[in-house]
Amino acid sequence: MIDVQESLREVMECEGVLAASLVDYLSRITLGAVQTPRGPDLEKVAYGDTDVMRAKLSTLELLGYDPGRLEDIVVTLDTEYHVIRPLSRRARQGVFLYLVADRAQTDLEAARATMREVARRLDV
User: Thinking of the domain 4-121, which architecture would CATH place it in?
Assistant: First the structure.
């Protein structure tokens, strides 16, 4: 198991990553955050992306899907990727890992794989 700050530092090691945080989407509280000067305001991210997470989980339930099937949500902007990954063991508690990466510098699949591995080992 790894702790929150260690896990976020590991995510930040991916090339092109600008910010990483761990968010409780039930309370909209940031549990940990690490970023470069180019990263966004992670408190605003925690507040806003909780709505994204809640909306997707609600939609899955409306469709009759098990919300536990959700691996991640990828938002592609002109210059950035934003990735939301719920912690499967904590899905019911409402915790997700968040990443912002420079689109030109990041291998999205490698970043997602790192997030998947970190989420598996994270001790919250």
Answer: 2-Layer Sandwich (3.30)
